[in-house]
Design a protein that fits this description.
Elements lengths: L6 E5 L3 H11 L4 E5 L3 H20 L5 H8 L2 E4 L10 E4 L5 H14 L5 E4 L6 H5 L9 E6 L8 E6 L7 H11 L3 E4 L9 H17 L5 H10 L10 H8 L1 H11 L11 H8 L21 H9 L14
Parallel strand pairs: 1-2, 1-4, 2-3, 4-5, 5-6, 7-8
Antiparallel strand pairs: 6-7
Length: about 325
């Protein structure tokens, strides 16, 4: 590891934290990962090693380069070891109690920190800032999609107490990490990504509930119609090029019949009542039967579209 490597602090050892460590180390930043136990360290380091092994298998880096990158990751149980962090990503349990405890410890140990980024997906920055004192002006949300070393998109949002330039600094640093961050003008539950995703999900459920098609039909539509288009252009670009007059006409024809429900559909409730909670349930059933499915092959399908975006300049020493 280079002696002058800049430091990124990561609090937590879960999936997001492990991926953030890979992202930071893969760009030559010293990633200091704060864990609660040796068991957590072992689990996190195993995930990290697996991610770098995938890169080796794909021919993105050599085994020697992967070893160099892993050398940029330091695990600790002591907040004092985060003292040189210019930015800290908080990735602990989704409770204010847990996050407030992290903020207090950062205030006591991290004099150089410029931004404290919670990866929270549901707690707005105004509430997060209530758990800090002298660093309340550095609290913000930096919401990624999992795993963030593969999925480039981040949603950033500060509170009214966040100091001028803090969110912009975080955006600049994430761009150094080859991410594609956007800054929200104001907070909203679900941010941008999940509002869009769950609007689509509500309509997908409605199509099945109304007897128009089966889940597999919906998935086939998404895989082979418009979803691939949006990996290279945006939805506003698409409809702008199609013309607003045609777009407006289609809106008038379709919007009146789109779902506006605010509860879970009955057929989904029935599955849940029967214990069919998805692949992680005892029955390994949900909308689909996952028994006998090659989950390693499935995981490869999940990440396949993102490999082309992983073109970092990896550290060599």
């Amino acid at each position: 590891m280079k002696k002058d490597a800049r430091t990124i602090g990561i609090v937590g050892t879960g999936m997001i934290a492990s991926s953030m460590a890979v992202l930071a180390a893969g760009h030559g930043f010293k990633a200091v990962v704060l864990a609660r136990s040796q068991k957590s360290v072992d689990r996190c380091s195993g995930v990290v090693e697996g991610y770098f092994a995938q890169m080796v298998d794909r021919g993105i880096i050599s085994r020697a380069q992967a070893d160099v990158c892993e050398g940029y990751i330091v695990y600790t149980f002591d907040y004092a070891d985060l003292k040189d962090s210019e930015i800290v990503f908080e990735s602990v349990a989704e409770t204010t109690e847990a996050k407030y405890a992290v903020f207090k410890a950062i205030e006591e140990n991290c004099p150089a920190v410029k931004a404290i980024c919670s990866v929270s997906s549901s707690i707005v920055p105004e509430v997060l800032a209530e758990g800090a004192d002298k660093y309340a002006d550095r609290i913000m949300v930096a919401h990624p999609f999992n795993p963030p070393h593969m999925v480039p998109y981040f949603e950033l949002c500060g509170s009214k107490r966040t100091a001028e330039g803090v969110v912009e600094y975080a955006k600049s640093l994430l761009e150094e990490l080859d991410r594609k961050p956007v800054i929200l003008k104001k907070p909203t539950p679900g941010f941008i990504g999940n509002r869009l995703q769950f609007a689509l999900w509500r309509e997908a459920l409605a199509l099945v509930e109304e007897g128009i098609c089966d889940p597999r039909d919906v998935d086939t539509c998404l895989e082979y119609s418009f979803c691939p288009r949006y990996t290279s252009i945006g939805i506003f670009e698409h409809f702008d090029n199609g013309g607003l007059e045609l777009n407006a006409a289609t809106c008038r024809n379709t919007w009146p019949i789109l779902s506006s429900r605010t509860d879970i559909p009955d057929f989904m409730k029935k599955l849940m009542d029967e214990g069919k909670m998805g692949v992680r349930s005892e029955s390994k059933t949900g909308f689909y039967d996952w028994n006998g499915v090659d989950m390693q092959a499935y995981s490869k399908r999940v990440t396949e579209p993102y490999w082309q975006m992983l073109n970092w300049k990896f550290p060599e020493e």
